[in-house]
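so i finally got all the pieces together for this one. its two components total, 384 residues if u count the protein bits. some of the lines might not be protein, just check the labels. i wanna see the whole assembly predicted at once instead of chain by chain like last time, that was a mess tbh
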Amino acid sequence: MSWMVWTVPTAVFFATIAALLAGMTVWQIVSPTVERQGFLPVPTTRGDRFFIGLLTSAYIHLGVIGFTTISIWLALVASIAWMVVLMRWG
Amino acid sequence: MNKVENNKAWFLVLPMLVLVSFSAVIPLMTVVNYSIQDILGNSAFFVGTEWFEKTLNDPDLQGALLRQFAFSFTILAIEVPLGIAIALLMPKKGWQASAVLILVILPLLVPWNVVGSMWQIFTRGDIGLMGYGINALGYDYSITSNATDAWVTIILMDVWHWTPLIALLCYSGLRAIPEAYYQAARIDRASNWAVFRYIQLPKLTNVLVIGVLLRFMHSFMIYAEPFVLTGGGPGSSTTFLSQSLTSMAIGQQDLGPSAAFSIIYFLIILAVSYVFYIAIMNMQKDKVNTQGGA
């Protein structure tokens, strides 16, 4: 696996994503999602909102890294907050 | 009726999942790993978000991104209406239909780099028909020194190459409209425009969304044609994203920055494709709903 040049941050990142996906799967089995309409313009399932949240979080991070001098940890906090809002009311 | 839930079919997806993990997931993970390190031969140094900062603030790459969007939206704005128009004009049946269909789709069969070479020769001032012809009309046409000429030629080349795809999709969409709609329109004495606006265009929406999605993604990744035709020049006026990426990754061996660039490129394509996906899905849902209500 040395050719993949793993680092601790990327390993933690992918482990977190994998854990979140596994968690979403378990959640789906325990209580299946119901499609509903929130503040997003289209009706979404839990998985849709999760994906939209991850994608927009990536953009939040890129925006913070590229165009501000704010710490990336603040981007992470903002992304988590955004994720919660999106999952609950999106 | 009691339905027994059986999810065993999911196991049939496993081989595909393994294949995708080797062809897409593992390479993508590797790219993410590359993007935060400076890799020189066998040694790698952790640099954090430095490559992302550099890439996002690189004026060359920002320029390439803007050109890429300009290119994609220009060719969509030309190819979609033109494709619909061609599909409407194509004969509906008989040997003429087959003959025209073959003629129209011929450009689709030409490989990308061959298209570039063909147009490169076609536009040469000394031996190319188009280049020589335009020069003979008194306009000093040169794709190697004039950026506008290069742009117009690349757009013309893409329109020539890919409008047939839109035309083909629309043609099949038009053939799927039941004759009864046209009969009803004739009874109402609907004008040709009304037939187009209220029967043909709404029935074409689904194929058009697929066509637009394919053309957007394809044009956003365009590489071989402009590379062969203009080499990205004059200057960098026709250098698009994939070409910047290739010269960075393979030309300069800057693995870290090009990995960061790849991730940003990937995220842009992912976001746009997802929006299209949602659009298609909602359109089909609307259709099912209206049919269910009728």
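Chain B touches chain A at residues 26, 29-30, 32-34, 36-37, 39, 44, 46, 49, 52-53, 55-57, 264, 267, 270-271, 274, 278, 282 (CB under 8 Å).
The first helix of chain B runs from residue 14 to 35.
anyway lmk what u think
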